[in-house]
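// run 5 | inverse folding | seed 20
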């Protein structure tokens, strides 16, 4: 197990009640199977991270296979990396991408962390063969040099923490929106929509091994449209009147566009 104590950074061992370190810091394991490794001093609010509505919105769009072409592309990237036995999903949400990879890449142990407890709870209930913890990206409760591949999809990460947990020669897969991702939604909500910034092409201490884009159009029904808006930052932006009009649409075609970069670290 790769988990470490978020207080003293010693390794955690499984106990009948949960997890503990040699300094007697203990952490209960929830009935769903996850462990909360986010101490109070690392929280910026009472319930940090995405709210339950956003988490459930993502579960809805994932079950509708709206993001499946991206999941397939990322699975191919992971499968193409040699000697991958441990994968850390940073900002794992409700576990969709790790679950997709686990079904297609045998012999890989997947650890997922997210700062939103509601997301981790849902992920742990759904993907019983993975290991989940409530934790933030700034202080990964993960042992040094213990991970073969770290993955971060649409979430913030901390480069020095990623480098710390990766083994020598380990990989970091970073995924974000391409410039025109959800462009039709943006034009419906804003007078002057802005394209997303290009994903970066360098990370200190690493080399860019691969990169790519996934782009396709999807026709949404009204339920999928509402779930997609709820699952993204667009839920909090745009003109109120325009949003109300948008969410009444029975059908809506939207462009899904993503960029990914695979970096290889040498410690």
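// decoded
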């Amino acid at each position: 197990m790769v988990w470490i104590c978020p207080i003293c950074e010693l390794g955690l061992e499984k106990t009948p009640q949960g997890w503990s370190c040699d300094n007697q810091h203990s952490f209960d394991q929830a009935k769903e199977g996850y462990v909360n490794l986010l101490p109070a001093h690392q929280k910026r609010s009472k319930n940090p991270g995405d709210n339950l509505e956003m988490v459930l919105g993502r579960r809805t769009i994932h079950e509708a296979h709206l993001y499946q072409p991206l999941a397939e592309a990322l699975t191919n990237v992971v499968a193409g990396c040699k000697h991958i036995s441990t994968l850390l999903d940073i900002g794992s949400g409700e576990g969709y991408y790790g679950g997709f990879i686990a079904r297609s890449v045998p012999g890989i142990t997947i650890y997922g962390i997210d700062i939103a407890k509601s997301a981790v709870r849902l992920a742990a209930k759904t993907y019983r063969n993975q290991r989940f913890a409530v934790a933030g990206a700034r202080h990964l409760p993960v042992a040094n040099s213990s991970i073969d591949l770290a993955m971060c999809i649409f979430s913030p990460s901390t480069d020095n923490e990623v480098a710390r947990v990766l083994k020598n020669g380990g990989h970091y897969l970073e995924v974000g929106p391409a410039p025109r991702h959800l462009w039709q939604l943006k034009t419906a909500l804003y007078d002057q929509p802005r394209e997303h910034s290009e994903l970066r092409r360098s990370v200190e201490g690493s080399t860019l091994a691969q990169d790519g884009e996934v782009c396709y159009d999807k026709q949404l029904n009204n339920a999928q449209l509402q779930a997609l808006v709820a699952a993204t930052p667009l839920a909090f932006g745009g003109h109120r009147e325009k949003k109300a009009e948008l969410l009444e649409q029975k059908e809506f075609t939207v462009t899904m566009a993503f960029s990914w970069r695979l970096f290889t670290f040498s410690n």
